[in-house]
Amino acid sequence: MSAGRQRLDKWLWFARFARTRSMAARLVSDGHVRVNGTRTDAPAKAIHCGDVLTVAAPHGTMLVRVLDLGERRGGAPEAQRLYEQVGEAAS
Questions:
Q1: What distance in Å separates the CA atoms of residue 45 and residue 7, rounded to the nearest whole number?
Q2: DSSP H helix total and E strand total for the chain
Q3: Which of 14, 24, 23 is closest to 73 using CA atoms?
Q4: Which residue, 27, 51, 60, 61, is the most exposed by fewest CB within 10 angstroms?
Q5: What is the reported pTM?
């Protein structure tokens, strides 16, 4: 993958939207994630800093802007630095 891009499932796992990478991939493939308003079912979809994601995770729906791609899955404070919440997602 090119610099400045990351797989969507990997980013969701790094940002702690899913407990495992396979759960993150399933979240995407089941159609629970939108990238810049467009639903995607491809876990390998490349995302960039600045993209806006709508994630309908089991613990709630969030609308977030990607701030950083991350290099590993760290603790919750590290994960929260990867994104900013930009508003309430419509259910």
A1: 6
A2: 3, 7
A3: 14
A4: 60
A5: 0.89
| Domain boundaries defined on the chain | 6-87
Residue 53 forms beta bridges with which residues? 35, 64
Tokens of 41: 């079912």
The H or E element spanning position 47 is: strand 46-47
The pLDDT tens digits for 23-71 are: 999 999 999 999 999 999 999 999 999 999 999 977 789 999 999 999 9
**Angle (nearest 5°) at CA 19 between 89 and 6:** 70
Q: Please tell us whether the domain made up of 6-87 is placed in CATH 3.90.226.10.
A: no
In this structure, are residues 35 and 51 in contact, taking their beta carbons and an 8 Å threshold? yes
